[in-house]
Design a protein that fits this description.
It comes from Sinocyclocheilus anshuiensis. It holds the Pfam family Cadherin. It is a single-pass type I membrane protein. This is Cadherin-10-like. GO terms for molecular function: beta-catenin binding; cadherin binding; calcium ion binding. The structure is a single chain. The chain has 618 residues and is mostly beta strands. It has five domains: 137 residues, Sandwich (Immunoglobulin-like), CATH 2.60.40.60; 102 residues, Sandwich (Immunoglobulin-like); 104 residues, Immunoglobulin-like, CATH 2.60.40.60; 97 residues, Immunoglobulin-like (Sandwich); 126 residues, Immunoglobulin-like (Sandwich), CATH 2.60.40.60. 7% of the residues lie in helices and 41% in strands. The strands form twelve sheets. Strands 35, 37, 40, 41 and 42 form a five-stranded mixed β-sheet that branches. The longest helix has 17 residues. It is elongated, with a radius of gyration of 65 Å. The N and C termini lie far apart (178 Å). The structure holds 2-acetamido-2-deoxy-beta-D-glucopyranose (5 copies). The site of one 2-acetamido-2-deoxy-beta-D-glucopyranose has 6 residues, from loops.
Length: 618
Amino acid sequence: FSLFSSSLSFYLSLFFWLLRFSGMTAITCFCTSDRDGQTLHRTKRGWMWNSFFLLEEWTGTGKQYVGKLHSDMDHEDGSVKYVLTGDGAGTVFEIDENSGDIHATRRLDREEKALYTLSAKAVNKTSGQDLERASEFIIKIHDINDNEPKFAKDTYVASVSEMSNVGAFVMRVTATDADDEAYGNSAKLVYSILQGQPYFSVEPETGVIRTALPNMIRENREHYQVVIQAKDMAGQMGGLSGTTTVNITLQDVNNSPPRFPHSTYHISTPESAGIGSSVGRIKAYDADVGENAEMWYSILDGDGQDVFNIITDSTSQEGVITVKKQLDYESKRLYSLRVQVTNTHIDRRFEQLGPFSDTAVVRITVTDVDEPPVFNRALYIFEVDEDTPAGSSVGTVSARDPDTINHLVKYTIDRHTDLERLFSIDSNNGTISTLQGLDRETSKWHNISVLATELSTALQTRVPVFIKVRDVNDNAPEFAMYYETFVCENVKAGQLIQTISAVDTDEPLVGHKFVFSLSTINPNFTIFDNEDNTARILTRRGSFNRREMSAYLLPVVISDNDYPIQSSTSTLTVRVCACDSRGNVQTCSNEALLLSAGLSTGALVAILLCILILLSKC
Ligand SMILES: *[C@@H]1O[C@H](CO)[C@@H](O)[C@H](O)[C@H]1NC(C)=O
Ligand SMILES: *[C@@H]1O[C@H](CO)[C@@H](O)[C@H](O)[C@H]1NC(C)=O
Ligand SMILES: *[C@@H]1O[C@H](CO)[C@@H](O)[C@H](O)[C@H]1NC(C)=O
Ligand SMILES: *[C@@H]1O[C@H](CO)[C@@H](O)[C@H](O)[C@H]1NC(C)=O
Ligand SMILES: CC(=O)N[C@H]1CO[C@H](CO)[C@@H](O)[C@@H]1O
């Protein structure tokens, strides 16, 4: 039992390869010619199994011949039948039951299925008995180079620092080939660069892309498109190939210093520019990008370095010149600054390329602004005596135009702050005078506003004027309260009947000092000044009689000791009452009560009438 294989694998594949690339498809004759090729060894059992080999991707007409089964029992008299089972039996592979010839029914692809395991036996047609035991054999599909290398992506993206050394790693690209790596060179790949020279190179075996030129500068060219080819058959002619594109970007390094495009800048600012406000911007340029183009500005020197600042606008990378000290056109009109710009992130590797900074001169011209008048004081406090006559001077305010053209200034009082029209101002010399007498007891302060106006420009400034009304002793002291007192009929001489005190609406600096006295010598009562702004009223004699005199009216003179002395006479009413031995009041005269109540005559008459009516009814 023997098996004729069509496989002379090496020669076959070589042959097939040649055929394929010479465009020939005469595989049929080739296979047929090999029919009487190798005869496999014979065994005792009659079967000798080995593998059949079959080339994939057969393009011939008709069915591809695989091989032939033959049993020693078969005497070629038509009594033996060959039967095939297993992978693809009857579909992919079919056997001629009489001759034992095996054919493939269609094209086979190794990359789809490389190995078929089948089983064959020889059967006695007459008796239906197996002549040979069924036994396995395999059909191996031989690779041909029918797959080209493939990259995972059409385009790769990579970057490498500009100015890298030659040979700097960029990235590795690898392709895969579906052909059999173990067999021939169908899957042996070699990489080459089709586009991107002389800037980049690729290692043929690994696919590692490296830089190939020194000093590649991003500022000159940033983007490169490199095409890499992978070719099988170890790169030999006739191999299949695939390509990919690698977009390579040079990454910026800080190899460019900032530069001022001008050596001198001219800036003009009005003198009124506020402290902290910007008067102008300057900008240096840097060929780098991002962080490598970041810079900061500083003032090196110049007569304006105490008057101006420079700050860095981190968004626009501009130097902003701001006012540090109030400008004044009248005192200085031109300043100069030497300004430096420096990269924020300096790369030590490139320092030898030169300084990563630059300087420029900024000239700042201060322009005149018509300024409003300026008072010589921020506020004025004047004092005036309350009894000064109308027309008296209170004080003088003064303002001047700070501009070089010294405009004339006029003064007015803001009438909203002096609604009572108590004051006037001399519009030429700023002297404030009273229009009326002032009363401190009505208002201690008159806080007004004075306006200074430049005649030609109408620019105006306002200043507060506080006018304090100084006290003058123009009020007399008087009783602090209404006193109602009495004296007992049985009183002794020297008895205290009332302590009195006084008040005064004036406000002397040293405090009040009241003096108490009786207006005339009185035989009935005396007064004793306690010298603490109170006084005691004492009896001078004993034994008062309410029937003889129901009440005494005692005029008390109270004076202050300010200048001019003010005094008043207040009357104290002392009723005479009947008391018990311990001095407790028992009865007092009604008339005295009424008197002491200090009622009006009308009321008094009414009350008297009532009393009369009451009496007449009794
Ligand atoms: C087949 O079987 C028949 C009947 O049993 C027998 O006569 C014949 O010799 C057999 N043929 C082979 C090749 O063994
Ligand atoms: C690669 O570069 C080309 C040309 O600049 C561009 O059109 C393409 O979009 C880039 N591809 C990728 C993936 O960045
Ligand atoms: C201001 O002018 C008035 C007359 O208009 C004069 O009486 C006054 O003394 C002047 N005051 C001063 C401070 O010159
Ligand atoms: C006026 O100013 C003085 C001092 O500042 C203050 O004490 C007083 O209360 C003010 N008077 C009025 C009416 O504003
Ligand atoms: C000044 C004064 O009031 N004197 C009186 C003192 O008392 C006698 C007796 O009551 C009166 O007659 C006085 O007029």
